[in-house]
Amino acid sequence: MATTSAATGELKAGRPSTNDQDQKARAKKRAERRSRWIWRIAGYVFFIGVWQFSSTYLVKDFILPPPLTILETMQEIVTSGLLLKHFGATLEKIAIGFSLAFIIGAFIGILMGMNRWWEAFFSDWILILMTTPGLIFVLVSTMVFGLSYIGPIIAVVVTGFAYIAVNLVEGVKAAPKDLTDMARSYNVTRGRLIRHVIIPFLAPFIFTAIRYGFSVTWKVATLAEVIGGNEGIGFMMRREFQLFSMAGLLSWILLFFAFALFLERVVLQRQIDRFFRWRPEVTS
Amino acid sequence: MASIKVQNLRKEFVTSDSTVVALENASFEASGHVFVSVVGPSGCGKSTLLNILSGIETPTSGIAEITENGKKARNGYVFQAARLLPWRTVMDNLMFVQKDRDAKSRERCQRYLDMVDLGHTANKYPGQLSGGMQQRVGIARAFSIEPDVLLMDEPFSHLDAITGRSLRKELHQIWMETKKTVLFVTHDVGEAVELSNRMVIFGKGGRLREDLKIDLPFPRDPADDAVALTKANVLRKFEELDLVAS
Amino acid sequence: MIGMSSTVTVARGPIRLPQGFRRFWRSTKTARAISLVTFLVGWQLVIPLLPTALIPTPIEVGEFMWAEIRADTLAPETVYQAFATSLRRLVTGFGIALLIGIPLGLLMGLFKRVESFLHDFVVVGLAMPSLVWALIAAMWFGFVERSTIITVVLASVTFVIINVAEGVRAVPKDLLDMGKAYGTSDFHRVRHVVFPSLMPFLFASMRYGLANGWKGLVLAEIYASTSGAGWTIRFWYDARRAQGVIGYALFFMIFALFAERLVFKKLSDRVFRWRPSVGAQAPAETDGSAEEDLIELETAEDNLEREASGKH
Q: How many Cα atoms occupy the beta-carbon half-sphere of C258 within 13 Å?
């Protein structure tokens, strides 16, 4: 196998091999890839096997329902329209909360990036917001607003805007000074400067901010629903928990996961593509 | 008396794309109080040769062994980068490679550290030393096990000219005193001519092309005419063998 | 500020303010102070105006916290007892996570097959919000100590596994080769090369694992326990005493700061005392005579920065 230590770094300049040896190497690579897939599938088989075994022989059905039951429950949830209803509710909160968080966060972030005084003004609070567990915001907003719609949104906004602001501050600070100087030398107004120079440059930072802010957001939204919501995925999870229905809880958790994957892959991926259209070398 | 024996040595590396031949049918022998330099362009397999001789790599075929009176010899290896354990003190680094870790070994290590003028750094960490100092620790480490053979892989190539020069002088003195066998890999022909009395030249693809004696008297001053002339001759030989990049 | 001309205007109006005064207003320290004051004052003033009676004023929160510090509380546990309980559970749970995670991580790092086998589960484990672990453990084990500890294990074990696996993959091969060239034994190399090189990764696993474990623990204490910091915060929540909730939130932050500065930093300093200072200049090369300058070892601050920046 090839080594890459400094001692044999000169490897690349060695005499190229014959076709025969090339074929040998390629076959080896194919075998490796096959082995990896086999073991990956083996992992799933093992997992489901242990699950099935445990639920059949080790513990009561009730504590750990067998995989099939979970599948059935999941199917029920989907076909009964519950899934759509609660996903929709959660999604709605996330959308509203995150948009608000983004607007506030972007405004503060850009302000902080452009002006040191404002940066100092906000930075302690941003730090506190980022390190406080989302739970606290959820508890407080639920206490104040009761079991409702608003609590989760507020929790989302508060946690979300800090992440966004932080990322944008870095972005603005990194803005290429020659571009801004050029614009300033032409006496471009501040508004146009921001729109045409800074924001396009900020695109990757905005993207990072959205990506990470988003993944924090949906977790907080779900948590908020568990504690103080009256609809949504988190709320359903709490209901199943209170009803002591393991099948229900596990089903909703799995659906939650599918949901999260969907959000991160589909929704965000599209945004990535749009933003980076102007960059020739980036392929998603 | 130690002896190095390389016979029909071949080494191939199989990567995911292709197979590369690093050494092709190399053969040479050396023994006793000799300073052998192994010279050649990058990629000619010099480091691979050392790795095989020291046991880090195994040959694809052929023989490569270092013996001391018939038994397996003790080798000291000095690398291009010092390769010190950053999380251990200098003394602990030397103790790491000793056979017995007792007070006697500790004394011996201290002696060799003193020899390279770094006795006072025994309790410091490598991170506190400069590159040149680290390299000297590496040399002290190699000598501290009192090896039969010294393997050196471009040990001075990462150092600045001044440090390199003084280390070469030191190395030469130690070699003269201890009368060991040294196998010294370098791409710097001048360095090879200055230090060695035998030169093995490798070409691209791991092929051994030449095996020369360098008969000049020691000590050798690089500014000396004879040395400069020999260096020029060797370089011309390189060109003949078509080893110089065009 | 952007948009202003570059020439310095001495005064903006008829009143000329002394230079020092203006500099004071512009300084960043003042900004932070003003920010804090604005927040507190604003909070204190706005509260009576709000329709809800539930949000406490800063003073009320302060009073609550002061009482708690004096161990004068209405809750079943004092703040010290509550955090001690939670800390105990956290450490126990993480210890178990280490016992399970380190071997699995080693296997994962060494063998490609194990990596393929475990990979997807590790990904899921990392992304799973600690809330889910808390709910599952609570349902399975009920209202016992075990639920909280198991939550910690579940929430932190994947971080241990993945960091140890990374560490194994990153073991410096050149140092291992050096050991091999000098004929050292396998065990000797594992002890002096592999294990120390894993340290930064173990620390990273501690950082992320403990953070996630702590979050899960608090939730588990809320749902499945009758003691601990998480449960106490629920106590105040149920009692509708917002100053309790907010006060405890502040205690959480103080606790985290303590843990970070006292425990983590000290430990980190000790284990990594061999690291050279970040940005230190290498001493100038000399001709080998004695009395050369030695690079300063890393200070504690550098250490903290290095860890915080997420460097493995």
A: 8
